[in-house]
Amino acid sequence: MTVWTEALLIGMIVGLANWLCNGIITRTQFDSPLIVCPLVGIVMGDFQQGVILGAALQLLFIGAFAVGNAIPPNQSVASALAAAFAIKMGMGAEVALGLAMPIGIIAAMLQNIIFSLVSIPTRMIDNAAAQGNTRKIGTIFLLNGFFVWVVFLGGITTLTYALGVDAVQAAVNAIPQFVLDGMSAAAGIIPAVGIGLLLKMVYKGYLIPYFFLGYILAAYMGLPVLGIVLLGLVLVFVKMDFRGMKAAAGTITGDQEVEDDDF
Fold first, then answer.
1. From CA 56, how far away is CA 79, in angstroms rounded?
2. Is residue 79 within 8 Å of residue 103, measured between CB atoms?
3. Given CA atoms 12, 116, 28, 137 in this order, what sign does their dihedral have?
4. What is the pLDDT of residue 187?
């Protein structure tokens, strides 16, 4: 497969993932590294490495989300290009993590510019709404999204990979080994940072024992992640107390005894 063929397919993955996430079906997370990187791995001929890089990059972007007009680094462009370059050069997550954030920031800057230009069709949508022309509204919406996500972002990804693979290869080869070792160490810290950001968003005092329970099961008892997840599902069912919910949903008469429990 030629470089341009790889670039075109990777660009299509990024463009369609963003279009499905932000244009056709809203907020599906199709543009997340966990989805994009394995698909890029298939294109590059190394699905397993794509999955590994996707998991590592997902933790890097786990706290990156848009708030109002603030656009975070574009995770789909960054993840696709970082994974593609890393697989092409036979490198690991340390190189992908080092490349991802700068690429994502540049992509977000370009995205801001194109958003300013594509705001023009908004007036057309307003006019169509005033006329009650729902078909025209849908057509403008889909075409506008296709241009922004598939043509623009997909095109940027295609050109960047096709024209930049040799330059990135030369730049990585010029990096001293001690810097690569440092990046590898940082790659091991990134998951902890991602989990920390996630805990900050969902932190509740009564959840702390469950956090340490999961840590003990993984670190000291060697229980795999799937086993911990299944145990978590059991705890959810126990805490939800579906039997008690059914009792509360029914009609309680004077002759019935209300059973107290710990929950």
1. 10
2. no
3. negative
4. 62
